[in-house]
């Protein structure tokens, strides 16, 4: 176990620490080590690490996800297919991080209103008034004047994209339809998930889902010390006992592509759980909320991006034709 505690167990300092800090300690008892087995000890550590202690913290919930087991050689209706329950999902409401961002110090860096970022290549700072645009230029569907001849549209942030401008205009229309007097604000949600190993020993792993707000600059989102992101959920994995259950039910071993299908179904089932009625109502109609600056705004969540590496995209997007009937 010493190699798990000392960063350099094989170095001279590591060996000295082992001898003087452990073996020569008066409380060290050789009898305790007679039944020691490294494999069993590491398995215990993995199991302990995978089992959270106590109840989830405030705002976090635990859940069990149900999956249908398909079998290519045993055709049946999807509703009649055998079902397994996958435990171990930890998640929080999709609205919680939105409210935390709007009420916390990160709000001061939020762009509540999108805009068009433009550049005039011929601009001369020594002659700022050499060229003046028409103040009465017609506005487009997003409420912006058309791009002057020779000017360039610059893109680099979510809040300067055409899509964001269109979403903001739509949110304003929805707020008017709802007879709301509050300023409409689109909150673009940017998610990313990435399964990862937790340690350099054993097989302990996690599958976290992270979130960011597109109202913040990418320079801040990419700066860990800025604390602009949040943990949204921890996806469970498909346990090994599912293979045994599959064999008991169908009499065959689970094909690789069926396990891939279950991983895809697992992710979609988790999202189906998180996209609850409360969030969908807020997504369609918006919700009134007092922000950090004491201004009440009508917030419209927007699922803007989802990032994943290639293997995970395969799980998310993989489609295999199963015959349920």
Largest sheet: 7 strands, mixed
Name the overall outline. extended
Number of helices: 10
Q: Ranges with pLDDT <50 over ≥5 residues?
A: 318-325
Strand content: 15-25%
Q: What is the element string, with H for helices and E for strands?
A: HHHEEHEEHEEEEHEHHHEEH
Q: Report the count of strand segments.
A: 11
The N- and C-terminal alpha carbons lie at a distance of 53 Å
Secondary-structure class:
alpha+beta
How do you describe this structure in short?
By secondary structure, the chain is α+β, with helices and mostly antiparallel strands. 32% of the residues lie in helices and 21% in strands.
Describe this entry's structure for a reader:
- It holds the Pfam family Plavaka.
- InterPro entries: Plavaka (IPR041078).
- The strands form three sheets. The protein has a seven-stranded mixed β-sheet with strand order 1-2-9-8-5-11-10. Strands 3-4 form a two-stranded antiparallel sheet.
- The protein is an alpha+beta fold.
- A hairpin with a 5-residue loop joins strand 10 and strand 11.
- 32% of the residues lie in helices and 21% in strands.
